[in-house]
Design goal:
Layout: E1 4-5, H1 9-15, H2 18-21, H3 24-27, E2 37-42, E3 56-61, H4 80-89, E4 91-93, H5 95-108, E5 124-127, E6 134-139, H6 152-165, E7 170-173, E8 175-177, H7 184-195, E9 199-203, E10 224-229, E11 246-251, E12 255-259, E13 263-267, H8 270-287, H9 293-302, H10 323-328, H11 342-349, E14 391-393, E15 397-398
Parallel strand pairs: 2-6, 2-7, 3-6, 7-9, 9-10, 10-11
Antiparallel strand pairs: 1-13, 4-5, 8-14, 12-13, 14-15
Helix pairs in contact: 4-8, 6-7, 8-9
Length: 417
């Protein structure tokens, strides 16, 4: 992942092109996500960042080696969680204006003559897609293995369950694996989210990170999977991938976000596209509290702007996210197909471990499942000399496995005062 320095909070706001181009500013006329809680399962969030003031209302550490409330950025790319959180529900700030006024006060010696604006929410800094939603920071340790750390599979399962139990209506997971299958411990966790009506949004992954096709958890049925496009709304070669589980696409190139310590950075990848869509999901759930998670997912997909070949395809899914349409379009009533659920996938594909069924009651076959959201069969772990699957964040961070990956960071840690 490559970060480029950003000079000021004002430049950050100007750089959020997706707010206008993807219908988010129009959607704010309807709702800004008040009342919604979104969990960010990631490397941990710097809750002191000025653009997150009042946004993070709770948290948890699933690694067993971080801060108990998920507020300590962890691992080989600790910036990642704060980048995601600010894009999803940043509040913005007025620190630039406050700094200017304070400088004038110091120069003139008349501090009482000029009132100070409130410190956020403001019209500078990073404002997220759902700036009135509440966040839960759930930290994972990736890329390092300190003593006492829980294994990565267990961390993810624990993080999902904790998020559901603590009120999340949407979960953002901006990480993925180079494998399509997933451990059975994830069956229980993601099924729990499905049964509790929680929508999981996951990044499709990036070719530059070694993901030539969508990998878990973006292959799990029911997950809203996000691919990435460039500034011309073309599928990004480096900052996206492909697969039949992709639901929608969102901007993934030339993104901006907040980093620990109060700074800002430019970045790319479906790690940043996912919180844009998770934010839209929070807006939809705020507008339509009666809709189920599956119906929210359908509304987002059904209102996306078709890209690429007509209709669904494996690069853009149903098309480019359109926040305003997702909130305002008049759609016909829709009910989810029971076959398009993780519960049904588990029944069909894990049945080898289940009690033998009566021949008089045949189960569904693979061909009964919807082809556009099909998930892979379980694959036995390799016993050869191949490297284990990698779990990756952003545009190529190696956080699980025995190989090595180069991660170039150009980060400006800048506080505006």
């Amino acid at each position: 992942m490559v970060f480029a320095p950003m000079a000021s909070a004002d430049e950050i706001r100007e750089g959020e092109f997706w707010l206008k181009e993807n219908g988010i500013e129009q959607a704010w006329k309807v709702t800004r996500g008040a009342g919604m809680t979104v969990a960010v399962i990631d490397s941990g969030v710097d809750t002191t960042h000025q653009d997150l003031k009042g946004a993070v209302v709770g948290g948890h550490d699933s690694s067993l080696v971080g801060a108990k409330d998920g507020s300590k950025p962890l691992g080989s790319l600790p910036e990642h969680g704060t980048l995601v959180a600010t894009m999803l529900a940043g509040r913005g700030n007025n620190l630039e204006e406050i700094g200017r006024i304070r400088a004038e006060q110091d120069n003139n010696g008349n501090a009482s003559d000029v009132p100070l604006p409130e410190e956020g929410p403001g019209d500078a800094g990073l404002i997220g897609v759902a700036p009135e939603a509440k966040l839960l920071s759930v930290s994972l340790m990736m890329g390092e293995e300190p003593a006492g750390m829980r294994d990565v599979d267990s961390q993810v399962a624990d993080a999902v369950k904790w998020s559901v139990d603590h009120g999340a209506k949407v979960i953002n997971i901006s990480l993925g694996s180079t494998r399509q299958d997933w451990p059975e411990s994830w069956d229980e966790a993601f099924l729990y989210a499905e049964q509790k009506d929680v929508l999981v949004v996951a990044a499709a992954g990036n070719r530059s990170g070694g993901m030539l096709q969508v990998g878990a958890p973006a292959t799990i049925p029911g997950v809203l999977v996000v691919a990435g496009v460039d500034r011309k709304n073309k599928a990004s070669w480096d900052s996206s991938t492909q697969g039949i589980s992709i639901g929608v696409a969102a901007p993934a190139v030339d993104l901006v976000g907040g980093i620990p310590g109060g700074g800002y950075a430019e970045w790319s990848g479906t790690s940043g596209a996912a919180p844009i869509v998770a934010g839209v999901a929070a807006l939809v759930r705020a507008k339509y509290p009666e809709l189920s998670a599956a119906q929210v997912r359908h509304r987002i997909e059904a209102t996306a702007k078709d890209l690429g070949p007509k209709g669904f395809d494996n690069q853009y899914g149903f098309g480019l996210i359109d926040a305003n349409a997702a909130l305002t379009a008049n759609l016909p009533a829709w009910e989810p197909d029971p076959a398009d659920t993780l519960a049904e996938w588990i029944r069909v594909h894990r049945r080898a471990a289940a009690p033998t069924q009566s021949a008089a009651a045949p189960s569904a076959t693979e061909t009964d499942l919807p082809s556009t959201h099909a998930a892979p069969k379980p694959v036995a772990p390799s016993t050869g000399t191949n490297l284990p699957a990698l779990l990756v964040m952003g545009a190529g961070l190696l956080i699980l496995g025995t190989g090595a990956a180069a991660v170039v960071l150009f980060v400006q840690r800048r506080k505006n005062s």
